[in-house]
Predict the structure of ascorbate ferrireductase (transmembrane).
Amino acid sequence: ALGFPAAVAVLARPGSSLFSWHPLLMALAFSFLMTEALLIFSPETSLLRSFSRKVRVRVHWALQLLALLCALLGLAIITYNKHLNGKGHFVTWHGLTGLLAVLYAGGQCAGGVLLLYPKLMKNWTLAKLKLYHATSGLVGYLLGCASLMLGMCSLWFTTTVTGASWYLAMLCPLVTSLVIMNQVSNAYLYRKRSQH
């Protein structure tokens, strides 16, 4: 989760151009911050597993908010950069998926507020809200990872990273996606077993 943004930082050299901030911010948002925010609830891998659920929820919230801010800034930078260079906006699969991932993340963060204040949703149980938030969060996370992977097919990335290194880079969001999917499915199965 941290290795991918670190590698992107070395490749992009943030500050060398306006564009250079886009890959770094998006890698930080979707590869590092969101991954860590979701792993907070893992009984096996969370660094905060000994803390109360309330503390873990607050850290999750803070990390997700930071991820959203990085993603919004990354989106703003690439949009402005394309405007300066007279290029079309959101004309590639990477651009469209990235836009959708950022918008989805914003919606998911707004949905997370409902878990902080469940009384706003009078006809829904807290358990249902948590299940829907986790499930839709997984969809959003996978969308973000798909956007990262499509970004690795861009001209900038494929001219910078070649051979086995490209495949290794592609494995990063793929492996974290599998870890997160496993965590969400285990949490769902655990809830099902505890209800019976």
